[in-house]
Amino acid sequence: MSVTREEVLACLKTIQAPSGVDLVEAGLVRALSVTGGAVRFVMEVSSPDPFEPAKAEAERKLAALGCAPVSIVMTAHSKPSAPPDLSPTRKAEPAGPEKIPGVDRIIAVASGKGGVGKSTVAANLACALAAEGRRVGMLDADVYGPSQPRMLGVSGRPQSPDGKIILPLRNFGVTMMSIGLMTNEDQAVVWRGPMLMGALQQMLTQVQWGALDVMIVDLPPGTGDVNMTLAQKAHVDGAIIVSTPQDVALMDARKGIDMFNQLGTPIIGMIENMSTHICSQCGHEEHVFGHGGVSEEAKKLNVPLLAEIPLHLDIRLAADGGAPIVVSKPNSTQAQAFRSLAKSLIESGQA
Ligand SMILES: Nc1ncnc2c1ncn2[C@@H]1O[C@H](COP(=O)(O)OP(=O)(O)OP(=O)(O)O)[C@@H](O)[C@H]1O
């Protein structure tokens, strides 16, 4: 008997995970394959025992639906498989930008200069969007300094049960994949030309992203290969440029905006990070890198200023500690800046 993918998902939605939400909503159903009556999928769990009843229920209900054979593999059962091979298997074929299946929108977070807080903004924005109920993915394409695993508190190698599809990791409601999870932390990553293009292509097309409302892409700083490749391979709906108010960072941001204009990627707006410094001891406010520079530049370039994020110790401690401030101190003034940003992007239909 033949069943559809939709019927299988509807059936799995009637089964509760131990957390109380259904298996699909909990993001546990990965690599689902429905061929005729044969159903196979992976349940991504940290420890199998609590999930055995849900697995048995799924097997029973799918059999009652007419599915045969039903094969459910819990990832914790299997030995960690070898990391997916990222070496290019064939020459990259010239192909135009494509929609990633299941992904509604792609937002690139970029900066002209390194160290201006682009990854911090990307991580907080992703978590803030997830907290608003959006289905969010994070593709950490910062090949030269991938920091999303640390910022989003995930570790371990992503699994690839069939050696082709890569299972992403998930934390704080964000489905994430990073080039940093495929390399040793201390290993210098020297991605060049075709190898780099192949790695990005694989992260876009071979990762089991599932259905996402928005995918955030944390780009490397500057105007290099990765930014170009992303725009060539995927349909990027918009770019957010992060800068500090300093002239030097602004000049680099201008180059970044110019590049996106040339690539035909719309600029969603600019974010001034490290805008003012508020002393965590006495609350005194000072402008370490100046203030308002990004706002002036945004006016000149006729792009919106999306947010001004203060320089605050808690933002650094949270990001570097593996739980962005939006998650660790959601009601703080600092988190509010990111939460308002997420809300305004949702309201304007951009995320
Ligand atoms: N608003 C902020 N307040 C305090 N610390 C911040 C803030 N934004 C970023 N930081 C800290 O600054 C450091 C650099 O930030 P981050 O890694 O996000 O920069 P980046 O622009 O992504 O750098 P690169 O592109 O070189 O990876 C981190 O330690 C981060 O915690």
From TrEMBL:
InterPro entries: FSCA_dom_sf, MIP18-like, Mrp-like_CS, Mrp/NBP35_ATP-bd, NUBPL-like, P-loop_NTPase, YlxH/NBP35. Binds and transfers iron-sulfur (Fe-S) clusters to target apoproteins. Can hydrolyze ATP. It comes from the Bacteria. Belongs to the Mrp/NBP35 ATP-binding proteins family. Residues 5-65 form the MIP18 family-like domain. Keywords: ATP-binding, Hydrolase, Iron, Iron-sulfur, Metal-binding, Nucleotide-binding. It comes from Planktomarina temperata RCA23. Residues 78-98 are annotated as: Disordered. This is Iron-sulfur cluster carrier protein. GO terms for biological process: iron-sulfur cluster assembly. PROSITE patterns: MRP. Homodimer. It holds the Pfam family FeS_assembly_P. The keyword Plastid does not apply. Gene3D superfamilies: P-loop containing nucleotide triphosphate hydrolases. GO terms for molecular function: 4 iron, 4 sulfur cluster binding; ATP binding; ATP hydrolysis activity; ATP-dependent FeS chaperone activity; metal ion binding. ATP binds at residues 112-119.
